[in-house]
């Protein structure tokens, strides 16, 4: 299979790669060079209609297969990704701007792992049965689940194939067929997945992928009468639009949204480990992970030491060509996104932030001189209420804020509209448990960051989302349970 042709992304409908019905395309850019990489279809309602009807046609046969047989097909997709790891990783780094070392070790292996995990998880899913004895009645309640139908799966650009497969894998395992839409900013690896699907003989119509913008393509999926469930990962304001579009027809929605996550370093923390954790949490993937710790809250006794150590760590960072193995930080995903991050940096300056380092454009020598690079920024001296500390920036920008005691740390951690994740650094187990339970977030890491077990729940509270993914939660979202109440003959 040849996977080195990245320039013409096509839709994948009914088992075939096809252009948009209108023939219209959108340009796709390589973030590290700013140059046009190729095109993707500018899909509209007509393309979504085609994809939904193909998914509807395949629903009966796919939904009736045993979990083992569905799992067999999904594992073939996973194997196709693994066998082409280098091609997928290179494509992801070219399309997204992330370092190749990250694509190779995180994004692409995790995409295959998502498919393998849910292929297996569906085999272990059990259903409930309750024996119910009432006066004069002896009943057996059995809950059976069926696939919810055609699932709409809409994903963002920051972890393109990783998050696209995180949505489609449980839907496939649950017996749904799919109309998926990757981000228009990073469409390439989903197209490579379509090529793998064709190559391994994945059943046509079960997985359909339509490319295009949110307003034209995404909204047509959300509004489609034959799509009863929408699993969405992306920004909070997009999530709100999707929720209001889906609500009148009572569609199921699963919304994984933005974050403004705290890294909390207590006075009893192992400082070296905490700084390394805070550094990774702030700047991994150019700070473009929903779980990034962009607010570093530090006990006042340690704040100068933490600031110095972080500055040193940042100075060691190699920022440059994502395709170089030694690169630690690549390009931001697009010119528009770099502009947005730069506007946030300007706000931080106007709010009186002291830039300890970074926040400048970088122009690496050679092929990347026109790419969308920024040096990692560390800012101190902003009040907690500053916009910089309250709004998601989604770039390589972190703030340092001191606190005096546990109570204040919790107040600062929770006093934002988001509640996705937190990482807490302390060597005191009692304190770790006490504080973790009080932090308003779907995930709290203690003395670590971004470690995931796919069986555990994942999601956000407040403006960070609605519902949970992970393990059986993901499978249940794509299923509709029915309770059957059987009466034993009690003569
Ligand atoms: P985005 O909301 O702009 O886009 C996400 C997806 O939604 C894209 O495919 C886009 O085309 C589509 N979309 C946009 N408008 C739409 C509409 N009206 N109807 C239907 N679909 C629409 O987000 P983004 O900029 O791609 O991603 C960054 C955001 O995603 C950040 O806020 C980040 O925190 C969040 N995110 C959250 C998680 C999580 O698990 N909670 C994970 C990754 C990213």
Give the class-level CATH name of the largest domain: Alpha Beta
Number of helices: 15
Strand content: 15-25%
* CATH architecture classification of the largest domain: 3-Layer(aba) Sandwich
Examine the coordinates and then state which fold CATH places here, giving the name of the CATH topology of the largest domain: Aldehyde Dehydrogenase, Chain A, domain 1
User: Which stretches are poorly predicted, pLDDT < 50 over at least 5 residues?
Assistant: none
Estimate the helix proportion, in percent.
25-40%
Structural class per helix/strand content? Answer: alpha/beta
User: What is the count of distinct domains?
Assistant: 2
Mean pLDDT: 97
Shape: globular
Radius of gyration: 23 Å
Q: Quick one: CATH superfamily of the largest domain?
A: Aldehyde Dehydrogenase, Chain A, domain 1
Distinct compounds present: nicotinamide-adenine-dinucleotide
User: In whole angstroms, how far apart are the ends?
Assistant: 66 Å
């Amino acid at each position: 299979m040849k996977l080195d042709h990245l320039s013409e992304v096509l839709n994948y409908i009914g088992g075939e790669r096809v252009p948009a019905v209108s023939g219209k395309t959108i340009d796709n850019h390589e973030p590290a060079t700013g140059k046009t990489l190729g095109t993707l279809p500018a899909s509209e309602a007509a393309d979504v209609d085609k994809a939904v009807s193909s998914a509807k046609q395949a629903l009966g046969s796919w939904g009736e297969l045993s979990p083992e047989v569905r799992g067999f097909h999904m594992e073939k997709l996973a194997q196709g990704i693994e066998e082409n790891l280098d091609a997928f990783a290179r494509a992801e780094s070219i399309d997204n701007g992330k370092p190749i070392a990250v694509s190779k070790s995180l994004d692409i292996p995790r995409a295959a792992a998502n498919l393998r995990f849910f292929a297996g998880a569906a085999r272990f899913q059990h259903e409930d049965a309750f024996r119910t004895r009432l006066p004069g009645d002896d009943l057996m309640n059995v809950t059976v689940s069926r696939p919810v139908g055609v699932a709409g799966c809409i994903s963002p650009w920051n972890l393109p194939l990783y998050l696209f497969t995180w949505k489609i894998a449980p839907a496939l395992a649950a017996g749904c067929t799919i109309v998926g839409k990757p981000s228009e900013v990073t469409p390439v690896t989903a197209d490579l997945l379509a090529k793998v699907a064709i190559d391994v003989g994945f059943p046509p119509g079960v997985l359909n992928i339509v490319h295009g913008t949110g307003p034209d393509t995404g909204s047509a999926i959300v509004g489609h009468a034959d799509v009863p469930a929408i699993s969405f990962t992306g920004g909070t304001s997009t999530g709100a639009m999707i929720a209001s579009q889906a609500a009148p027809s009572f569609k199921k929605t699963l919304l994984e949204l933005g974050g403004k996550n705290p890294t909390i370093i207590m006075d009893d923390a192992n400082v070296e480990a905490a700084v390394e954790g805070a550094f990774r949490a702030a700047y991994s993937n150019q700070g473009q992970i929903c779980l990034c710790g962009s607010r570093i809250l530090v006990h006042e006794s340690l704040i100068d030491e933490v600031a110095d150590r972080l500055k040193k760590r940042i100075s060691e960072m190699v920022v440059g060509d994502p395709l170089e193995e030694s690169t630690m930080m690549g390009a931001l995903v697009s010119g528009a996104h770099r502009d947005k991050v730069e506007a946030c940096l300007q706000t931080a300056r106007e709010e009186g932030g002291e830039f300890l380092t970074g926040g400048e454009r970088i122009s690496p020598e050679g092929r990347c001189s026109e790419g969308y690079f920024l040096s990692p920024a560390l800012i101190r001296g902003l009040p907690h209420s500053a916009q910089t500390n309250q709004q998601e920036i989604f770039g390589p920008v972190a703030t340092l804020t001191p606190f005096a005691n546990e109570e204040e740390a919790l107040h600062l951690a929770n006093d934002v509209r988001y509640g996705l994740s937190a990482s807490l650094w302390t060597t005191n187990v009692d304190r770790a448990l006490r504080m973790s339970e009080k932090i308003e977030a779907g995930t709290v890491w203690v003395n670590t960051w971004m470690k995931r077990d796919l069986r555990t729940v994942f999601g956000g509270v407040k403006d960070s989302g609605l519902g949970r993914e992970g393990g059986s939660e993901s499978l249940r979202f794509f299923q509709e349970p029915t309770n059957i109440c059987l009466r034993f003959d009690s003569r």
